[in-house]
Sequence to fold (502 residues):
Amino acid sequence: MKISDRIKTDVLVIGGGLSGLAAAWAVGPEKRVALLFDGGGASPYIHGFSLPEGPGDSPECLLEDTWKSGRCQNERALVEKLAYGGGEAHALLDELEVSLDREADGSLLLLRPLGSSVPRVASVGNHTGAVLMGKLRERLAQREHVRLCEGFRALRLLTDPNGVAGALVYNRKEKRFLLIQAENVILACGGFCGIYPFSTNSPDSGGDGIAMANLAGAALRDLEFIQFEPCVGLSPPGARGKGMITTLLYEGACLRNRLGERFLDAIPGGERVDKDILSREIYQEIRAGGGTSNGGVWFDATAVGHRRLEEVYPAYLERYAACGIDLAAQPVEVAPAPHTSLGGVTIAPDGSTTLPGLFACGEAAGGVHGANRLGGNAGLETIVFGLAAGRSAGSISWGREKILREEFSFPLLPAADRKSFRCRMERELSENLGVIRSEAGLRHAMKTFRELLAGCVPEEGGDMDDYFETLRLQNDLQTALLLARAALARKESCGCHIRQDQ
Fold:
């Protein structure tokens, strides 16, 4: 198929979540920017972000907490940039005229996330991500040089002799493929936990970013580290997939098995441990027969009290009230679910990758969190590294003339086959790439993913939406294979990656 439709820009930002918006904001007014978004990803659900300014806290303390939480698998230079990035976060908030929540005495209202030595998560209500996204999108829409492309999804990166030169994109509204040529491309399309059948991710998330980067030749890292959110709603149906904020475990909330027992009392720290440890303990309790009828445990926040919940966690009260649950009076059935992919494209502190012309930030990038993410750091990461990638991409020009490739052979599968392929992929992910993994299971998953990828063969004469959905499935399968390969290669248990056979 020949693609003749083309857009030319200076900087192409793939992803309209908080990291992509921050990147577009930082590019500079003299550069043309095209920002693609096909949903908001995880950003609207960011409760707050790490800000090391409370009693007993400092950037050095945040650095060490992050390093320890990541089991020393992080890239130290990236951790340092994150830990000292509070000033950039403040500057952005000031530019956007956004105020953080404060206590009655005027000090910052800070919550303590799991794995943190002190309270340090600052927020704007319970909707920090959504508020910042709204402000940035509103301001960017007023810039003449910025083009906001809603309903556009990138599927392949394009290269020329100088490196990455643009992307093959699908316009979902107009049902057509087009090429976007750019001096520099920023991958900000989020993580890939959406390839799992049960996760906290929205339907627009998937494996496109990792697959595109890999096919273009960019170095990747740490793909085996999938952080499972320990407490994700199972039932009723309206609560399924909704994360329960674990800072409540420092406020009096606890976890109970099907008999109502606090099954974590015997381990040091009880419920107040790193998320990787908490997910493992919950998973093992369920497997040992302590699970509820729906295969979960009970998250009991009744001891927190209605007043505290209403003052600090109103969004969670509302979220579960809409499902018929009063958090102040009854527990919620929860289980671990894939939440954050900690690995991704290898980056330097300025957001550059191993490919000229390609930058990455947010959950699409790897190296910041290591083997386990500290609560609150994802929000800070989107700001610090989004701004860094935008500044870098806006400062380099390669003098590109044209994209060399216009002919594409697209794989095509009918809807019934796509559904069957995806079900098989999801079953392997659930059974063999969950909280606890084994060599035999990982090898079985890799074999299945390879078989499914071999079935994605090019064909002419298809419907544009069918081509688009097949390409999305192919990207998800490629990412699933890369995940399984990385998990097999790391034979020892480390952080979020737990091998039962080692």
Q: What stands out?
A: The first helix runs from residue 18 to 26. The chain is about 35% helix and 20% strand. The chain has a mean pLDDT of 95. The two ends are 48 Å apart (CA to CA).
